[in-house]
Amino acid sequence: MVVEDPAAARGGSDGSGGYSGTDEYGGTGQYGGTGQYGGTGQYGGGARAGRERRSGWIGPRRMAEALLIAAVSPVLPGIAHLRAGRVRLGGALLGAQAAALTAVALVSGRYRALFLELSVRPSWLLVLVAACVVVAGLWALLIAHSYAVLAPDGLAPLWRLAGGTTVSVLCLLVIVPPLSLAQYGYVQRELVRTVFRDAPVPSAAVQAAARSGDAAGWPGTARLNVLLIRFAPRPPREPDRVAAVTLAGVDTRTGDTTLLGLPRGLRHVPVWSGAGPVPFPPGRTLAAVYREGAAHPELLAAGGRVRDPGAELLKRTVAHMIGQDVPYYMKMDARGAAELAGTRSGGATAKKGCPFWANIREAEPLTVLKRYQRLARVLINSVNTDLPRRLLPPLAGLAAKIEKAEITSLRPAPGRAFAGRADHPALRALAARAPGDPVPPSRAPAGLPILSVSCN
Length: 456
Fold this sequence. Notes:
Blueprint lengths: L5 H4 L37 H9 L2 H15 L6 H5 L3 H24 L1 H7 L3 H29 L6 H18 L1 H20 L8 H6 L13 E9 L10 E10 L5 E6 L24 H9 L13 H14 L5 E5 L1 H8 L14 H4 L5 H6 L1 H11 E3 L6 H11 L4 E6 L12 H8 L17 E5 L2
Parallel strand pairs: 1-4, 3-6
Antiparallel strand pairs: 1-2, 2-3, 4-5, 6-7
Helix pairs in contact: 3-7, 3-8, 6-17, 7-8, 7-9, 9-16, 11-12, 13-16
């Protein structure tokens, strides 16, 4: 065996020689060439890398880098795989993410009304819930796999435990948003299924008795009338007491809406069963019609088996009184009204003269979202309506129009010119106004003083 200069034989660790030439290991020697810790050897990067390796910190530093990349992987899926050299998988994940975001942006910008319609379809809400659960699982799996492909080998047990714990926390954090959205979807589905019930289409006789026309053909009509009923607080075991009756007339083409407030104290009310008049003392008020119907469902023509006989009799009476079809009603108790009124932004007060139903439109979306689950529970227990569930999709599209449309509030002013009679001819004239028409003068031709205000 031939050994050259002893100095050369000792040069392995600094990367300048070491067991080179013709020694028994041949070539550049076990530690020859650039050396284990120097030049471009196994842990290349110069003296700094060598010091990190000797001190044991290069593994934890790479672990921290792997955790950071894994944390952002739900936003940039595939970045960890690109870092690990898995170019095809990483590129496919990034491409899928970009395509999905582009599609969502295009659809949300052009088909906002479609999203509103889908939000009231229980079947689509169920699909949303399932999709959110799947997304939560995929995001958690992506974080775990991203860390696995980048985690360094040879970590001490304590560092492995720290890395695994951090990954578990990241997985728990990342599933919160999709699972929260799934919960919102579930609550929305329960609200739609509970408040809006689909019953069989009424027979022609029942429809005629209710003076509501063909309910299934509503989307094709130019005007939609809905009777809005609000109830006052009442002691336990006391019957419902009507606090406000408002006729909402909506132009289905533009969303312009006129809210005609009918004083609850109107007398000489022509109570109508649907097929004929119902005996009713002239001194009793419009608000008392509800109690009459609730106590005597048999007064309703063509059968009294409806969801709320009191609201049904009041709706038919108002339709007969104003000479127009009123297909549907919606009633809400005082608790629900107070909860919705509290969603208005910044604690702003309602516009004076505008009914509660007009002011809830100005609720701050973020405030509603924060309190949505509580509000949904209140609505489930506070709202009653005969609007069928099958009409919710077109109604959602109509609500999108109303959001930016003109809303006008009209109500008769108290005074001698208005004796509080339900058969006052000016009430029919007011109800006949097309939604969006210019606000009438303070004194209508019939001599009835009118208070009017724009609720926009």
